[in-house]
């Protein structure tokens, strides 16, 4: 029935070529759970563990082979990994891996650069002495403060120069905000972003590190576009409402020899738009390429990137360095967010990067940061249910699919995080003997408010569960996010604890990891407050 259908909210398209393929709202199926509400705390992606050693090997033998494997991988990555490959390390998770384990995991996989979204002291301490190049960040909510030069100097002193010592953190960039000019922000950061950028770079210069550490501004690809009557890359220009501001920013970055940083998401071109040609989101060719002045564009990444190149040329900065701050593919939360597509996208991208092909207007090396490193189950799902599933690793540091970081297209798995501790092997499921199910819908809604149920959405990995399965999934996610506390698996008799793995097919019923005091406190007072409110709400249910 029409009244039972739900129209999902679509964020503004970040594509520079929106005129090629009009976007449509997504209609969720009639029987699927409504995940359109806003949630602050939530959960990770299902997936399967990867077996790395022959079954016949005992643990001692497996451990020996593992260390040999690490040595070989470390050696090969030092010479064969894609040049300068970076990753985004976000920490919006209810249960974080210990930062030192994450840093070791990056080193084991030859990852040479990392982009952060803050300058958290625990994270920075873990990166100290690692040699990994780091981009620290100033969140958008601090941009107004950074427009005061005194405060900008204090921030640089506390978050940059204090680590700029021998054996410290190898900081190369400071990201001033993150996509602050998105249309959805309604100009909230329009007047404070550029002053903050200027102040941070000037503070770096004054501190004597401005030659080696540059301030940059990660921007969404919606800051440039092509006109409706000529929607091709060569016609790229900065968005008309911010053209003057973008020209000033580009000029300042260019003067300070800092890169123009852009986030490009081919997935979002496909998301919610059934008219977008699927193959154009990937790198393995299309039957009908876009032709622009004799240049054939066979994928949206090249077209997007070259639209920016054209916009910079039009502004007078055609030779300016461009850094891709974020690019990736999610693995759940949408019909096009899955492991097969993520594998196809990343392996195509890495082969191009390894060959230094660049784009038609910018051949050669491109510095790229993959998005992201680990799934983040506490991210906002305002842009879409896929937001919590961008990681190339699961929440527990297990690789989701094979990625050949050398770009040679080989069937290789990344090295997982080591010594991960899990909560006991028990799950929370719907009680088949429950007598009163009148509050079942309310209980599921409550569980999904405080835990991540995005895998239950249309086209997602757990979309095929029946009604009881949906309830079990929601109850278990809540149970795990509450660290398996007994009271968190009751729901007035609707739920019961089981030691039998109730995962079904591709739908994984998670066992959460044990967090250290540092990782569990990383969300700060908000997590403590939410846990308290959750307990009170549960008791009142």
TrEMBL record:
Gene Ontology biological process terms in this record: carbohydrate metabolic process; defense response
Membrane topology of this protein: Lipid-anchor; GPI-anchor
tRNA processing recorded as keyword: no
PROSITE patterns: GLYCOSYL_HYDROL_F17
Enzyme Commission identifier(s): 3.2.1.39
Protein keywords: Cell membrane, Disulfide bond, Glycoprotein, Glycosidase, GPI-anchor, Hydrolase, Lipoprotein, Membrane, Plant defense, Signal, Transmembrane, Transmembrane helix
Subcellular location as annotated: Cell membrane
Pfam families membership: Glyco_hydro_17 (PF00332), X8 (PF07983)
Location of the X8 domain: 426-509
Molecular function as annotated in GO: glucan endo-1,3-beta-D-glucosidase activity
Main location: membrane
GO cellular component: plasma membrane; side of membrane
Reaction catalysis annotation: Hydrolysis of (1->3)-beta-D-glucosidic linkages in (1->3)-beta-D-glucans
Segments passing through the bilayer: 66-89
Enzyme class: hydrolase
Superkingdom of origin: Eukaryota
Classification via InterPro entries: GH, Glyco_hydro_17, Glyco_hydro_17_plant, X8
Family in the record: Belongs to the glycosyl hydrolase 17 family.
Protein name: glucan endo-1,3-beta-D-glucosidase
